[in-house]
Structures are given as structure tokens and as C-alpha cells.
Design a protein that fits this description.
six-stranded mixed beta sheet, Nucleotidyltransferase, domain 5, 41% helix
Length: 246
């Protein structure tokens, strides 16, 4: 893969939380609809939601992964660029309590970056989670989708997003492989963080620490880029060539 091709990829990751800090704060209509959703989930995943699990407990722990009952609090992006033939990486975040504002700013960047079909987006499980979540929450917030996100009705081969999970599967669709596991098997160094995805809602609602979430999200973007490079037989980005923009 040539240098100019790598520079046409935007790596991204999102962090999501439930719509409210607690189930009791949900509007009545959404509360009833979550009960309906929970009933379906309980039948579909009894090993996760047993008969003792309440709808309130499930909302507080799981609602953030469903775009109708969750929202985006951070979108981090990263770019590879070259200086003196040396690979560099810079990453930044769109984050905060105002979901519409952060989405609007992110979509503005998308419109500036994705000006031809050659520019594309890369993420881990991006096709199943990040992109659909971004599109749905954008529409809920009354925002127009950029051309690259207008994928309804398109054939799979007409959508050129790069998904590192899909690349790793090599056609095997039976299992999900976490990004953290891929960094481990590839020997990609990652910082030892005091936060993981299951703690994001607590950090957002109780600690009010969006900077901590943003940094965590940016590190996942970096990890995705490093995994992508390894999957393509390329050298990793050196630690002193990585820039986190706060």
C-alpha cells in the first residue's frame, strides 16, 4: 500500500452512553418502549438477561449500544501522514454533552475529507456499529448525512468502508474478535488504561470527565490504525510519531 493511499483513510471510533444517567429519568413513552425492547432481548439472550434481570438494570448497563436508547458522547478520528518519509499519526476528538453539536462538527469534517470515492473510513466493527450509530443519531438530531453515509439500498461491494474486524475474519462470520485481542496477538503495544468500554457511562454521568473518555477513544483509534497496518504487512507507527490532540 502506497503512502498516498494511507493518507486517504480516516480512522475512527465512537463512545456511546444511555440517553439518561438512569432508567428512572427516561420519558414515559421511551420507558415503555424500552420494556418492549428488553422483552425481546431477554428471549434472544437469556444467558445475558436472566429472569432476575430487570428492565431498569438492563437499561443502565446496555442501552448505550442501541441508537434509539443511547447517544454519542465522543467521536475520535485519526490520520496517517508522512514527513521526511517517516510515518506519523495524529488524532483528535469531537466530544461533549451536546450530541448534535459534536455530530455537526464531525460531519463537517467528513464533508471536507471525503471529497472523492478514494477517501474512506476505517474502524473496528465500523460497518455493524459505528457507522449505523452515527447515521441514526445524526438523523434523530435533524442533521443531513454526507454523501459517503448515504448507503441505503447500496450493494455491499459499493460501500468502501474498511472494517478491521471484517479483514481479520477472512470470510469467517461465526465469531467476533475484540480490538484488544488483536493488539495482543499482533504484539501491538497499547497503554495500560484505567477505563474500558463498560465504564464510559459512569465516567460520563458520574465523574463528568469527557477528557478521559476522549483520550480512551483516541487510543482505540490508534490501535485500529496499528492493526490495519499489520493486516497489510506494514510497519507500525513509532510511538514518538503519534500526536494526540486534546
Amino acid at each position: 500500500m502506497q503512502q498516498n493511499e494511507l493518507q486517504k483513510i480516516m480512522f475512527l471510533d465512537i463512545e456511546t452512553v444511555p440517553l439518561t444517567s438512569d432508567y428512572s429519568e427516561l420519558p414515559d413513552e421511551l420507558s415503555h418502549l424500552w420494556h418492549d425492547k428488553f422483552s425481546i432481548l431477554q428471549k434472544r439472550m437469556p444467558e445475558k438477561y436472566n429472569e432476575d434481570t430487570t428492565a431498569a438494570e438492563a437499561f443502565n448497563t446496555s442501552a448505550g449500544i442501541y441508537s434509539e436508547f443511547g447517544k454519542i458522547v465522543c467521536i475520535s478520528v485519526g490520520f496517517i501522514h508522512f514527513q521526511d518519509n517517516e510515518m506519523n499519526f495524529r488524532t483528535k476528538s469531537f466530544s461533549g454533552k451536546d450530541e448534535k453539536l459534536l455530530l455537526s462538527d464531525f460531519l463537517e469534517l467528513i464533508n471536507k475529507f471525503c471529497v472523492t470515492k478514494e477517501q474512506t473510513l476505517c474502524g473496528h466493527n465500523i460497518k455493524e456499529f459505528d457507522i449505523p450509530f452515527i447515521c441514526r443519531r445524526s438523523l434523530i438530531n435533524g442533521l443531513e448525512l454526507p454523501l459517503i453515509f448515504q448507503i441505503s439500498g447500496k450493494k455491499p461491494w459499493e460501500i468502501n468502508f474498511i472494517d478491521t474486524l471484517e479483514l481479520w475474519k477472512f470470510g469467517d462470520y461465526k465469531n467476533y474478535t475484540a480490538l484488544k485481542l488483536l493488539t495482543a496477538v499482533f504484539g501491538i503495544p497499547t497503554p495500560k488504561d484505567d477505563i474500558d468500554g463498560s465504564q464510559v457511562a459512569n465516567v460520563f454521568y458520574k465523574e463528568n470527565d469527557i477528557e478521559r473518555i476522549s483520550l480512551y477513544c483516541q487510543k482505540d483509534v490508534l490501535a485500529t490504525a496499528q492493526v490495519f497496518l499489520r493486516l497489510n504487512g506494514l510497519e507500525l507507527i513509532k510511538s514518538n510519531n503519534i500526536q494526540f490532540i486534546r
